[in-house]
């Protein structure tokens, strides 16, 4: 599989985003990584990409801020053949819905939903200006199907919005040759569980997974990069579960 394009990866400093960057370099892609607070993580990922012989740029960007998203795209040369992995997202400590504040909900949907919209919007506009249709993969979650009661219903709802967004945007741009798909990771070995206040979450829930193990970020990244590649050239408006059957 050869990816001879530039791939913009939001939230590229750790987890699935970082795994995508490292694998993309191995498949021949240059990358642009955004991060919000973890500059050291982004620098480490970029160093790995460069060690593989590809170009890597890192850009600090709060995807929920329209001005920062516009500045991110303004710095990308106008003729760049661009693909997008719309990965940036947050989770909050586990809570019941009755315990969630308006501030928490505003931040959750601001980053996970509005941020994804803003970045995808600018990516489509860039592709149109460049005259080079590209591909978009949005990162959802199996939480969108499961609901995550008493844990992260707000996170689950934000990812359900990403599923619908993927389908709607795909319909809008398909005739232009722009493909839009999504992946829904299941229980994956990333630090998102600790950020949600549950560092032992994988151990507690892995028995519910038919394959009886958690997934690796690289396994999700392989699915994402396949969807970006020409091997998936007739696939759009599709959501792929990477969840071991759960």
UniProtKB/TrEMBL annotation:
Pfam families per the UniProt record, alphabetical: adh_short_C2 (PF13561)
Domain Ketoreductase: 5-181
Gene3D superfamilies: NAD(P)-binding Rossmann-like Domain (3.40.50.720)
SMART domains assigned: PKS_KR
Record key words, sorted: Oxidoreductase
Similarity comment: family membership: Belongs to the short-chain dehydrogenases/reductases (SDR) family.
Name of the featured protein: SDR family oxidoreductase
CDD domains reported in the protein's UniProt record: SDR_c (cd05233)
């Amino acid at each position: 599989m050869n990816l001879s394009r530039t791939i913009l990866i939001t939230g590229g400093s750790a987890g699935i985003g970082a795994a995508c960057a490292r694998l993309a370099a191995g498949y021949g892609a240059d990358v642009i990584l955004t991060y919000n607070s973890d500059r050291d993580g982004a620098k480490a990922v970029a160093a790995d990409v460069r060690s593989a012989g590809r170009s890597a740029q890192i850009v600090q960007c709060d995807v929920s801020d329209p001005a920062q998203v516009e500045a991110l795209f303004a710095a990308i040369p106008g003729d760049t053949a661009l693909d997008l992995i719309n990965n940036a997202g947050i989770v909050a400590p586990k809570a019941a819905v009755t315990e969630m504040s308006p501030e928490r909900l505003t931040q959750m949907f601001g980053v996970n939903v509005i941020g994804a919209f803003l970045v995808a919007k600018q990516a489509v506009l860039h592709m149109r200006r460049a005259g080079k249709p590209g591909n978009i993969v949005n990162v959802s979650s199996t939480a969108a199907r499961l609901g995550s009661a008493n844990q992260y219903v707000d996170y689950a709802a934000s990812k359900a919005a990403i599923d619908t967004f993927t389908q709607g945007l795909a319909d809008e741009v398909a005739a232009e040759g722009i493909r839009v798909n999504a992946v829904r990771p299941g229980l994956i070995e990333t630090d998102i569980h600790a950020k949600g206040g549950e560092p032992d979450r994988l151990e507690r829930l892995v028995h519910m997974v038919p394959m009886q193990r958690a997934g690796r970020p690289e396994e999700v990244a392989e699915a994402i990069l396949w969807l970006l590649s020409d091997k998936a050239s007739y696939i759009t408006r599709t959501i792929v579960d990477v969840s071991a059957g759960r």
